[in-house]
């Protein structure tokens, strides 16, 4: 078992100024640190990667912050599903830059989306297809889903 911490315990938007949090988490006994990243995240991935590596802290990435609602792998609109796959692939690219071991979270759909309808017949299939495509992309980048 690994003890970890999430960036939201310390900040609502990860930034270079937060690097001291990594040492605090390691000193508290954490073996891994999850960073929520969205379109509003502004930081130098190499600085975070180097700081975590120096501390022996495993990084994990999850979606957070600004995550456009039209970027949803389970959306009814195929164009939104494609936008969702592209958005998550960019987060996987960032995870790879950080040398993160995994990209985790509610990847199957956008949290906060409420669909007041019966699920269409193909919803589970197209959501699973998007997750499979994302997992294949992530595997090529060395990131687990």
Give the helices and strands, then pairings.
Blueprint: E1 4-6, H1 20-27, E2 32-37, H2 45-55, E3 58-63, H3 78-97, E4 102-103, H4 123-140
Parallel strand pairs: 1-2, 2-3, 3-4
Helix pairs in contact: 3-4
Major sheet size, sense and barrel closure: 4 strands, parallel
Low-confidence stretches: none
The tally of strands reads: 4
Elements, N to C (H/E): EHEHEHEH
Helical run tally: 4
Give the averaged pLDDT, no decimals. Answer: 95
Short description:
This protein is of the alpha/beta class and 145 residues long. It is built from 4 helices and 4 strands, in the order E-H-E-H-E-H-E-H. Helix 3 links the parallel strand 3 (58-63) and strand 4 (102-103).
How would you explain this protein's 3D organization?
With 145 residues, the chain is α/β, with parallel strands linked by helices. Helix content is 39%, strand content 12%. The chain contains four helices and four strands. It has helices spanning 20-27, 45-55, 78-97, 123-140; strands at residues 4-6, 32-37, 58-63, 102-103. A four-stranded parallel β-sheet has the order 1-2-3-4, covered by helices on one side. Helix 3 packs parallel to helix 4. It is elongated, with a radius of gyration of 16 Å.
Which properties best describe this structure?
elongated; four-stranded parallel β-sheet; alpha/beta; 145 residues; 12% strand; 4 strands; 4 helices
């Amino acid at each position: 078992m690994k003890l970890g911490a999430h960036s939201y315990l310390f900040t609502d938007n990860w930034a270079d100024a937060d690097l001291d949090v990594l040492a605090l988490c390691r000193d508290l006994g954490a073996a891994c640190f999850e960073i929520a990243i969205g379109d509003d995240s502004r930081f130098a991935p190499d600085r975070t990667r180097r700081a975590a590596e120096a501390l022996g802290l495993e990084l994990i990435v999850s979606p957070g912050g600004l995550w456009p609602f039209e970027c949803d792998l389970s959306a009814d609109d195929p164009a939104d599903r494609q936008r969702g796959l592209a958005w998550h692939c960019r987060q996987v690219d960032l995870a790879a830059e950080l040398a993160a071991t995994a990209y985790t979270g509610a990847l199957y759909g956008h949290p906060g989306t409420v669909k007041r309808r019966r699920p269409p017949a193909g919803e589970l299939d197209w959501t699973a297809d998007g997750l499979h495509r994302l997992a294949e992309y992530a595997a090529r980048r060395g990131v687990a889903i």
